[in-house]
Amino acid sequence: MHRVVVRVCTWGALWLSLCAVGAHGGSSYRSGLRLVDGGYEGLIVGISDALPQEHCNQVLHGLKSLLTEFSQKLWKATGERVSLRDVTVNLPDSWQTDVLTCSLLSPLTRTSVMRRPQILVSGPHPVFGSQPWVQQSQGCGKMGDFIQLGADLLRGTSSDGHNHTARLLLSEWVKFRWGIFDERGYKGDPLYPEEFRDPVTGELRPNQCHQTSTDLPFCAAADHVPEAPTKHNAQCTGRAAWNVISQSADFNDRKKSNSSTTALFPSIKFVQSGPPRIIIAAENTAVMNLQKRWEFIRKAVRRVIVYDVPDGAHVGFVVFNSVATATAPSSKMEEFTDVRQRIGSSVPRNPSHIPESHKCLLCALQEALRALDADSSGTTGATVILITTGSGTTPQNEIDEMIRLANMNYVRVEIILYPSIGNQAVDSSKSDLQRLASATDGTVFTVMDEGVGNDSKMSMMIGLMDSLLAAIRRTAKKSSLLVHSKTYPGGYNSIVRGKFSLDDSLSKATRFSVFYYDLNHVGNTIQLTTPSGKVMASINMQEEDGDANVIFVTIPSAERGEWQYQVENRADSHQGLHIQVTAVESNTRQTSLRVWTSQSNTDDNSTELSMPVIIYADIKDSRMPVLKAKVEAKLQRLGTNATGSRYEPIFLDLYDNGFGDPDVTNGDGVYSRYLPIAYLEGLPGQFEMTVSADDNNGLAVMPVSNHLSRYTIIPSLEEEPCCGSNIHYSQVKSLMPFQRSEVYGVLGIKSSSTENDNIPPARILDLRTSVNISSYEVTLRWTAPGDDYDWGRAHHYEAVYASSWVQAKSYGGNKISGMPEPASVGTEQFVTIMIDRYDQIVYFSIYAVDEFGNRGGISNIGSVWIPHPPTTVLPLSIDDILNSAQGFSEPQDRGVTQPIRVAGFLFQDMSVIIGSVTGLVIVIVVIILVCFIHLMHKKRRQQKREAEKRVESNPNIIIKSNSNLVIDQEDSHDSADSAIKDIDTLVGDGRPLSPNLTWTASKLLHEHENRLSTPNIAQIETADSNVKYQSLQGPFPDVTLTGSYPSSQTSSQAPSTIQSDPPAYQPQYTGTEYPSSGPYSYSHGYSQEHLASYSSQQGLLSLQPTMSSEMYQQEIADIYQREPLSHVSYGHEVPNYVGEMTGYVHTVQPPPMYAAYSENVPRTPGTSRSKVPPPVAPKPPRATCNTIVASISATALEPKRRNVTQV
Question: What does the UniProt keyword field contain (predicted)?
């Protein structure tokens, strides 16, 4: 949209011409502010449209008081040199000035303000609140971008409040006008800390200016401390603020006189923006008959007038050659009239045959002024757009007269060089036009001639359209905004695809346009896909305008988000299709992209190496900075190469990183980069620069204001000051997908024959130093600057340390060896060194050197205080390590971070070592546990196999365990011994009864009787005279009887002696044949068995042959020998005598351990026994059952053997 011609600047062997930065240049839009006889004129104060009208009277009254007080303080601060003379206040368009809430004493002038305001009154800022603050995008001694302050400061009514606000405004004015920076530190800032070591005393002191005078908003020369780590000292290499101010153009120019003896009271003029007024004047000499030049003028003018100029604007058209003629008077554009069509069709069909050398530019301007005078709105604030080739010679007196007429009528002159022929930069005639545009705060755009035989390429018409639209948007903000623009070359006969984004800052109505050279170049397919995936068949929505070579689709309520499109491209190989998406900015929210360079368009002399070209792009969303956006500049060399093809474009990313050179502050929304002169091909030549910005795939964010609008009477309680190297926002929010594109202009470059590289690396302005008090090592950190300013990779670094700041600044002192090799631009690097200078301040400086020996500028000076090591080495504690680490803070958003050394090790290395050791210990413990579990499992298996072998070797063994324990044959117990447990049993008096103790027979019998005697059994009489028994007090010893008994099984049916435990106590068996007097019912799952007599030929084996078990066997036998038998037979329970028990074997699976027990089982009446035999294991069912044939006397006389095992 903005095309710019270039001015000449010296790069040693390179000459760069930056044609008319115009309103986008470093000081172009500020050129209206000038110092005349000790008074500033042309100061513009703008009031934001977002402020409500009910605050009008309070804001305007406060603004008058503030500007008057500010002029007085400015006079004192500058040593009675300058003050304010006049100020223009631009009111919002939405304010009604004829009501009581906004009454003015003098009539209000409605006009178009030609320049951007230097001071903006708006709502609170997310960080600065309502306090004044300045945006500084350039370095020391360069003017800032603007000053912003909150309207709340103007609503106070007390003089003290206005006095304090004037002091705050003055402190920001010296930064804005004269390019000085803050002289204080900030909390948590890695570059500009709150405290520093005093160079004289060595003690810590606050990092701020200590001065006696309260009138100065900066440190006086006598109070300035160059060693202080402040932003001003870093940017201005330690120079005092007044030294920088006195060398500015305001005070260094001896031609400027000052006859004032007192401070001026500023004259304040209130204006309100009126409708934009535009006159387009096009050259129609014979040169326009070539190719399609004049036809493209007709189509481009029609396009912008019919489709892009907003409603309410006044537009006229003038043609000129040797004379000038108004073909269309200035007329108001209205929506429902044919005025747009009439003005758009007023361009003559053919140009004249008058030679180009006879053209009269002065005539064109005079005719344009007459057309504006005929309009009721007048000329003030109007814009005249001159379309001319720029060739030929224009007399100097004619240019001077044009400048006089434009300034007298307050008219801005925009110049479009169409077509610009050749690859040279700018000739003398173009330089004169550049001077005209600069003097009127205008811009020079350039459209290169790209003809093919008798034809002209469509790119010429698109370039002319973009230039006209950019010039109109400078005056008419509500004109169409170029959202998306892309060129698709022809010759492929294919479907081209693309995408564009629409966000809330755009109005709902959107126009999708396809520009063509010939209508047949556009196929039948034009398809749009909404962000929600809906495909729009646009065949019924397409409109054609052959007078502008465009097919467009108007989307009345376009969905927000990312759109996709498909267009059939049938263009010829030397032409193409151009697709553009335009929309109008929303009234409630605006996302703006502004582009400029560091070159000023006011100086005609050549620049030097100290003034390279820096590209800047400022992205704002409702005046809030857009962070983490993707900003890219495209440099396209105009013309064609030897093969007739276009040159390949060069793309460069712009960054908001705050490295200091070139980007001054991180987080301000200003993205910058040096122009890569050494990397441009095809020199000499002209390069068109286009800057585009988007949401960076959803990463872009904007700050959210957390400051409430409040009525401030005396804002004496200042918030924490901000900001140093970074602007930190407490709250941010993501932005919807957006796209913005700005065509800046053409950069003309021509180089000499020399091949030597004389472009140095950029300055290192983020040098940080830190010291490790445990190892007395000093670490230096910085960001790699590049080879040619911020491009490429430097050759090597040179760094020094010195005992004084002056030595370090002049690269004196001791050189530091072992510096790392320079990395790519933006990479953070560090080096750690040992220094034996204790109890003193040591200063450091560093610079980069390229392969040709060009040295970068001096870095900011870093300093550290190294305490003397103790005479006795004390053990290092954890607290010492942690305390020493507190002095190291990693910078935020400063590229690739590097580790920090502590006690000779890096923090990251220490963490890796600790983590590795911890992990190794955990692995070893896990391995040990796995091995231990494996060995135990293996041991249990071995024991199990050994037990199985013992059992197989003696089939008379029955393994018995506690009745509550079920032995799993595979892995519950691997040996017979493991199934035997010592369970303490309490005797009557509470003492434990252990089977491993040796007890006398009488004592054991006594304890056994206490447990099994009748008083321990509660007898309950029931209605049917049956007796029920409650549980005995347990637990009881579990008795296992082993022996050899006759078996009817064959050898093939080998008995299994390892089975699950049967019940510990015998359940009660009920029946008429075998009544029972025991407390438990016998399990019905066990069949009746008859035990055979004991055979002495078979051996007995005890699982636990202890003395106590033998005594227990004998005493139990004695009990049953003395106990008289009742007349009841216990065939289903146990024999009356121990000796009657026979061995048993079984081959079937035993039933469940406990059979179901019924509470009301009928019992046969019988005599209760006073003694209950000890519980023994129930016998599993046998395959065959033998009848017991043995007499009591015979069995009583046989020797008895029993293995008693208690578990």
Answer: Membrane, Signal, Transmembrane, Transmembrane helix
pLDDT in tens, 915-962: 888 889 999 999 999 898 988 888 888 888 887 777 666 655 554 444
Phi first, then psi, for residue 1139 (nearest 5°) are -65, -15
pTM (predicted TM-score) = 0.70
For the chain, the straight-line distance linking the first and the last C-alpha, in angstroms and rounded, comes to 99
- Residue ranges with strand state E in 850-977: 862-866, 901-902, 905-906
Domain range summary for the chain, segments of one domain joined by +? 6-19+593-731+738-751, 26-271, 276-479, 768-903, 958-1207
Q: Indicate the pairing of strand 277-283 with strand 383-388.
A: parallel
The Cα–Cα gap between 737 and 406 comes to: 42
Which stretches within 954-1017 are classed as H helix?
A: 1001-1012
Q: Dihedral, CA atoms, 375, 381, 387, 392, nearest 10 degrees?
A: 110
Residue with tokens 């900066």: 218
Question: In Å, how far are 127, 131, 438, 722, 1035 from 719, measured between CA atoms?
Answer: 9, 9, 41, 9, 81
Q: What is the DSSP letter of 299?
A: H
Side chain identity at residue 1160, one-letter code: N
Largest Cα–Cα separation, the chain: 160
The three-point CA angle 585-406-250 to 5° equals 90
Question: What type of residue is 790?
Answer: D
User: Cα–Cα distance between 438 and 432 in angstroms, integer?
Assistant: 10
The H or E element containing residue 1119 is: helix 1107-1122
Amino acid letter, 948: E
Q: Which CA distances in Å does 770 have to 81, 493, 845, 1128?
A: 44, 64, 14, 103
CATH number of 276-479: 3.40.50.410
Rounded Cα gap, residues 707 and 733, in angstroms: 16
Mean pLDDT of the chain: 76
The two three-digit tokens of residue 1022, written as one number: 């029931």
Contacts of 29 (CB under 8 A, 6+ apart): 23, 115, 116, 441
Angle between helices 293-303 and 458-473 (to 10 degrees): 40
Q: Are 786 and 825 in contact (CB under 8 A)?
A: yes
Considering the domain 768-903 in this protein, what is its CATH number?
2.60.40.10
Alpha helices in 587-689 (DSSP H): none
Rg (CA), the chain: 51
Please say whether the beta carbons of 800 and 808 come within 8 A: yes
